[in-house]
Structures are given as C-alpha cells and as structure tokens.
Design a protein that fits this description.
Blueprint lengths: L4 H23 L1 H10 L17 H24 L14
Length: about 90
C-alpha cells in the first residue's frame, strides 16, 4: 500500500490545523493558561519567573525539584565507571 493523494491531503490538513491551533493558543496564552489553572491543571508560567514573587508553596516545590535533579545527577556520576586510558601496545625495538 503506497502513499496516495488522500494521505498527503490528510497530512497537509493536519499540519495546517496544528499550526492554526498553536497560533490561536499563543494569541490567547494568558487566558488559556488561567482557565487551565482554574481546572486544576498545573501549567508552568510563561517566560522567566520572578522568584521573589513566588509563594512559599511554589518555592518549596521548586526547591524539591532542584534537589531531585541534583540527586539524579549524583547517581548518574556514581554509576558511570571512571574512564581508563586504553593500554598502549609495547613498542618493539
């Protein structure tokens, strides 16, 4: 079964619909994100966060996330064996 014009048409329509969705989301990002937060969905803030304006709960959550990342990196460092140089062949005179 080969690719037909119906496949290509479906792909182009899907690509166009996705592009339109992203465009509309970006135009209304603040409204959509606020609505999602009201529904209980944790949506990260757009742009850089000002840590001074975060609540204690948000700061604690961020601290725990960073501690988890640090622990994960430390474990990865311990799991990787130390790289040893390959033995050099003895030079023959």
């Amino acid at each position: 079964m080969g690719i037909t014009t119906e496949h290509v048409t479906g792909f182009v329509v899907g690509l166009g619909t996705s592009a339109l969705g992203v465009y509309l989301y970006k135009q209304n990002q603040a409204k959509v994100d606020d609505w999602l937060r009201q529904q209980g969905i944790n949506v990260p803030q757009a742009g850089a966060q000002d840590e001074a304006k975060l609540s204690l709960e948000e700061l604690t959550r961020e601290k725990e996330r960073l501690e988890d990342l640090i622990a994960e990196r430390e474990m990865q460092g311990k799991e990787q064996p130390a790289a040893q140089p390959a033995p050099q062949p003895a030079a023959q005179a």
